Amino acid sequence: MTSIAHRKRRRATGRLPVVLVLPAVLGLAFLLVPLVGLLVRAPWGTLPSRLFSASVGEALRLSLLCASLATVLCLVLGVPLAWLLARGDVPGRGVLRALVTVPLVLPPVVGGVALLFVLGRRGLVGQYLDAWFGVSLPFTTAGVVLAEAFVAMPFLVISVEGALRAADPRYEEAAATLGASRWLAFRRVTLPSILPGVVAGTVLCWARALGEFGATITFAGNFPGETTTMPLAVYLALETDPDAAIVLSVVLLLVSVGVLAALRDRWISGPS
Amino acid sequence: MTLHADLRVARGVFRLDAELVVEPGEVVAVLGPNGAGKSTALRALAGLLPLTGGHIRLGDEVWDAPPDAFRPAERRPIGVVFQDYLLFAHLSALENVAFGLRARGVPRAVAREEAARWLDRVGLAAHARAKPRTLSGGQAQRVALARALATEPELLLLDEPLAALDAATRLHVRAELGRHLRDYPGHTLLVTHDPLDAMVLADRLVVLEHGEVVQQGTPTEVARRPRTDYVADLVGLNLYRGTARGTSVALDGGGEFTVAAPATGPVHVVFPPTAVSLHPDRPTGSPRNAWRVTVAGIEQHAHTTRVRLDGVPPVLADITTATVADLRLQPGAGLWAAVKATEVHAYPS
Amino acid sequence: MRAWALAALLVVAGCGAAESGGAADTTGDGRVTVFAAASLTEVFTRLGEDFEAAHPGVEVVFNFGGSSALAQQIGQGAPADVFASASPATMAQVVDAGGTAAEPVAFARNRLEIAVPAGNPAGITGLADFADADAKIALCAGQVPCGAAAKRAFDAAGVTPRPDTLEQDVKAVLTKVRLGEVDAALVYRTDVRSAGGEVEGIGFPEADLAVNDYPIAPLAKAGNAAGARAFVEYVRSDRGQAVLAEAGFEAP
């Protein structure tokens, strides 16, 4: 009797279904093996000297700065947008929701050209920015931030909107009955309750911005110290010096994995 | 200041058309089956749902009068206890109670002090820093009540305040809620589908069916003269206040009951009309509670006959049609009513 | 059975080799895969159509891209039959790796030209204007052939350019000019011509010092060696040269 019970319990807790584990392991390998390839091919001997070269530092600093600024921009604009999509009483919400994801399906280079059409020197809006304020966004660091934000914002909006839609709107009603305006209710009740979703979206958004290439090089161009972010540096290095490209990629990889892991510990698995 | 509400809401095929008047200090229970419009009425009063017709006025203040006036929830002096409390999970019990005061611009320190006082009043001073998910159902309900009352609202709205509690907790919380409602000087509207909650807590019952008021009055009135089968089934309860000493309860209006479970102090005594048997002579044997009554009225319902009986105390009895014939029941006839002690429940009040 | 099959295979292979050695327009059947520099996009597309018309049953498939990227893809074993590069240096990478089946030959020469948006709004006249900090300037990055050529031109002219952007290929530079985002850029003459009326070209004397030879070679791992040789020969034929000249290329 006892042995049967024992065996039963072992089985109940022990075995993971093979139909899930096998594809899971394959999926993990599929994602990780290319990274391993990168690490194996990395010229470890010359790595330190390449790593501390001025151009790598400059590109890395610019990448981190631009990705972070782009993420802030996405948060400032994207969270309210997600709220509007999830809670707002706007007509054609389904269409709006689909349009928000356009930068996801648009090839980033096309996104960059589209930004030029709007914000370029002769763009719909850009011509007035140039004529009235003397502001020209292409080929500037601000342009990099805009291009990255354009491509990365859907990640934030989608994830925050999902969190908002999963959150019970009656908590906002409860806040209203306690005298809270919609803004206060959003700030003090809704936002804290969807914080994990916001953090997850922010992380995705930042990571996407960090790796952004196509829209950036198209809209903001490429000039060292000004608009040459790590992905651009990697691409151009591939033209002549594949080893340098690998080094740059490894640096980008390590920095992003480090930041994401730190955030994850702090926020995503932290509070619960 | 009296709360006058002529609640008219049309949504699809559903229509609510109910008039409610609540005096200061009065507790009105809106009772009705699911889908009767209870929640709609509560949401309209709270300002979470605009009326499509009618009005809501508190004294001279117009809260809602379509199409001109609408005052949203955050600008109405209300407190709401929701069915599942909706405590803010990321805030402590204290911060939850202080929320309304903070939202109304009370400085943080003052709000926290006031909130602490309220938590103390509901007996949760020790749990001020607890997060809602660590509280028991009864504790959460008390925090929700404290949160609703902390802003000293003119109108307190309770949406099925006891529905989420298990039976044992319910007894205590109901009694405690009753005490707080008696102390509360504002207007109280309680929405429930539980007749016992309504009858124990409310001064007046309003019964809603299909969006309309089918009957209103004091719990005793409604219980003794139910106008529809639904009301009869719903509020067909014999309910008395009294003082318990062991298994004996002396009723406030005269008379005495023996109950199975001993209790002390003020109690409600409850038993259903089906527990009452009628006899031509004083019954012998097991019933511990027997007293003289005279027939005041007879109503025929779907499957049973409900007999209203005067006596000390007056009582309702549901009997079969055959028994009516056997006893030759007619108004004015003298009888003995009997109830087994095991059928009589005493709840602390 | 197996011996029979082997013998048949040898006969077929032998015939193929003999035939291709004999007549230039015999290509074997199937497809020819050509990896070509981005600046050859328009002209090679047209040459491919002509080649297909002249050799029924043959399909030419192109992979246009930055020469360096293409050289790397070939190095990693991409299935290419022919490589046409925009610079001898990138071709040399493939040759050094033993990737070519024959000595590369120059088939065209391209010349840099100043490209300005239609109407030349900034009034650019020569290379000296590229040193103007106020003018928006786009150049190819130094790592790609058009960037290296530009550097030679500037060195020859003694001008230190002040570019606002260093683009990853010449077509990206051209796009910036087309959209009017920059006032001037250095691109190939063929690019100016391909852009039609949207872009104006301005010649400059130092361009003679910054000409670019385009080498072409059949590849060692070609799946269609006969086709590869035939395509290379077609590009070098009078007919091929005429099409190239029309697009603005010079003879090497």
TrEMBL record, chain A:
GO terms for molecular function: molybdate ion transmembrane transporter activity. Pfam families: BPD_transp_1 (PF00528). Residues 60-263 form the ABC transmembrane type-1 domain. It is a multi-pass membrane protein. SUPFAM superfamilies: MetI-like. This is Molybdenum transport system permease. GO terms for cellular component: plasma membrane. The lineage of its organism: Bacteria, Bacillati, Actinomycetota, Actinomycetes, Pseudonocardiales. InterPro entries: MetI-like, MetI-like_sf, ModB_ABC, NifC_ABC_porter. It comes from the Bacteria.
UniProtKB/TrEMBL annotation, chain B:
Residues 284-348 form the Mop domain. InterPro entries: AAA+_ATPase (IPR003593), ABC_SmlMolc_Importer (IPR050093), ABC_transporter-like_ATP-bd (IPR003439), ABC_transporter-like_CS (IPR017871), Mo/tungstate-bd_C_term_dom (IPR008995), Mop_domain (IPR004606), P-loop_NTPase (IPR027417), Transp-assoc_OB_typ1 (IPR005116). It holds the Pfam family TOBE. SMART domains: AAA (SM00382). GO terms for molecular function: ATP binding; ATP hydrolysis activity. SUPFAM superfamilies: MOP-like, P-loop containing nucleoside triphosphate hydrolases. Keywords: ATP-binding, Molybdenum, Nucleotide-binding, Transport. Residues 2-235 form the ABC transporter domain. PROSITE patterns: ABC_TRANSPORTER_1, ABC_TRANSPORTER_2, MOP. GO terms for biological process: molybdate ion transport. This is Molybdate transport system ATP-binding protein. It comes from Saccharothrix carnea.
From TrEMBL, chain C:
Pfam families: SBP_bac_11. NCBIfam families: modA (TIGR01256). Belongs to the bacterial solute-binding protein ModA family. This is Molybdate transport system substrate-binding protein. Residues 1-23 form the signal peptide. The keyword Transmembrane does not apply. It comes from Saccharothrix carnea. GO terms for molecular function: metal ion binding; molybdate ion binding. Keywords: Metal-binding, Molybdenum, Signal.
